[in-house]
Amino acid sequence: MAAHQFAVATAVLSCLLALATFASCNTEGDILYKQRLAWKDPNNVLQSWDPTLVDPCTWFHVTCNNDNSVIRVDLGNAGISGPLIPDLGGLQNLQYLELYDNSLNGTIPATLGNLTKLISLDLYENQLTGEIPATLGAISNLRYLRLHENNLTGAIPTSLGNLTSLQELKLQKNELSGSIPSSFGNLKTVLILKLNDNMLSGMVPLEVLSLLISGNLTEINIAENDLTGTVRSSGFRVTAIIQDKLKNA
Ligand SMILES: *[C@@H]1O[C@H](CO)[C@@H](O)[C@H](O)[C@H]1NC(C)=O
Ligand SMILES: *[C@@H]1O[C@H](CO)[C@@H](O)[C@H](O)[C@H]1NC(C)=O
Ligand SMILES: *[C@@H]1O[C@H](CO)[C@@H](O)[C@H](O)[C@H]1NC(C)=O
Ligand SMILES: *[C@@H]1O[C@H](CO)[C@@H](O)[C@H](O)[C@H]1NC(C)=O
Ligand SMILES: *[C@@H]1O[C@H](CO)[C@@H](O)[C@H](O)[C@H]1NC(C)=O
Description:
alpha/beta; ten-stranded mixed β-sheet; seven-stranded parallel β-sheet; leucine-rich repeat; LRR_N_plant-typ
């Protein structure tokens, strides 16, 4: 028997066995159930996440497409805490991952870069630590990347400049350091860019400022950082650019 025939036969057999034991043969359900077990859920919002059902499409806070594949997980402000498991990167048709305003901690798994159908990644207002994975730059359909109000550290990955569908990039109120990537000059579709309240240093790349003219940028907030030529201060606003006071102004 050829290798691929054997693989198909094995997959079918394990699925039949799974059905026979009333376990799910849907790997997306397995992934979400594993995530449920990794979280604390004091409000029991995940009670309907029953791994014995054929697929997760009837679970609350989960939405599927017509092929019974998960396209949304909506758990904003749900009271959940704990880590994001790397297996989430296996939800291959996921378009919306809405997990904002919870108490998620640990790092953002690099595997989320495999979610190439993702339109919105909302992990803001949690307690996530570590670096922003450079792999997120591979999600070419991403329109909303909102990671603000976490405890993210390290430099902003240059690869985020590859996100040429982006409308909103919100990374404010973290502990990000290093300089603003000049690759952000490629983000011609971005309307809102918020990088304020971090520890960013160096010059604001001209490529980024030029987005106000050549791109769709309407608001850029870079205040409360350690950028060259400015002194830290709050609430200084110039129509579109919000930055710290100029040193000699
Ligand atoms: C996340 O929070 C829980 C509960 O406070 C804690 O036990 C765990 O060590 C934390 N994990 C990380 C990676 O900080
Ligand atoms: C997903 O991403 C990780 C890390 O970026 C990679 O190592 C892994 O091979 C990917 N998995 C799949 C199924 O593509
Ligand atoms: C995370 O950030 C918040 C808000 O900036 C801060 O109050 C808290 O001390 C930080 N926690 C850690 C573990 O760094
Ligand atoms: C994304 O950006 C990085 C750094 O800017 C670059 O090296 C890489 O080739 C880009 N990847 C893709 C898939 O465009
Ligand atoms: C700006 O936005 C408009 C409308 O959403 C879009 O058609 C246009 O392509 C965008 N411009 C750039 C440079 O992306």
